Amino acid sequence: MLDVEVIGDGGPDAPLPEKIKRLIALALASAGVEDGHVAVEFVAAERIAELNEAHRGKSGPTDVLSFPIDEASAAAGPRELGDIVICPDHTENLREAVVHGALHLIGMDHETDQGEMLALQAELLSW
């Protein structure tokens, strides 16, 4: 069972929690992941800038950050997949940010692959 926890207010353009769960489920299913817990938090620009500096060494706000927790080889029990942090003020498309963050949780990385992650992201968003 997939458990998606939505924290904070994404604003008037944010997808409903049910839609967020569906988007995450689609992204995770692309890697065969169907069970676990994901937290999605909507934060202000100041908070995401702090996280961006602390975890990526980059100054200023960004649109979305992902923090994977359990690896595929984690012990038995509910898998803690990780956290997705989104700054609505720096995000053009919140649906895209949700999918983007979920794909990072399953190990995809658009900065090192040959375009596979962004191609999959576009395909999932077209559904």
**Could you estimate the helical fraction of the residues in percent?**
25-40%
SSE succession: EHEHEEHH
Low-confidence stretches: none
N-end to C-end Cα span: 22 Å
Strand order of the largest sheet: 1-2-4-3
Strands, count: 4
Classification by helices and strands: alpha/beta
- How many separate helices? 4
User: What profile does the largest beta sheet have?
Assistant: 4 strands, mixed
Mean pLDDT: 92
Radius of gyration using CA atoms only? 14 Å
So what's the overall shape?
A: globular
Q: Strand-residue fraction?
A: 15-25%
Structural account:
It is a single chain. The chain is α/β, with parallel strands linked by helices and 127 residues long. Helix content is 38%, strand content 20%. The protein has helices at residues 17-29, 45-56, 94-105, 116-126; strands at 2-7, 36-42, 64-68, 80-86. Strands 1-2-4-3 form a four-stranded mixed beta sheet, with helices on both faces. Helix 1 crosses helix 3 and helix 3 packs across helix 4 (116-126). It is globular and about 35 Å long.
List the keywords.
127 residues; alpha/beta; 4-stranded mixed beta sheet; 4 helices; 38% helix; 20% strand; globular
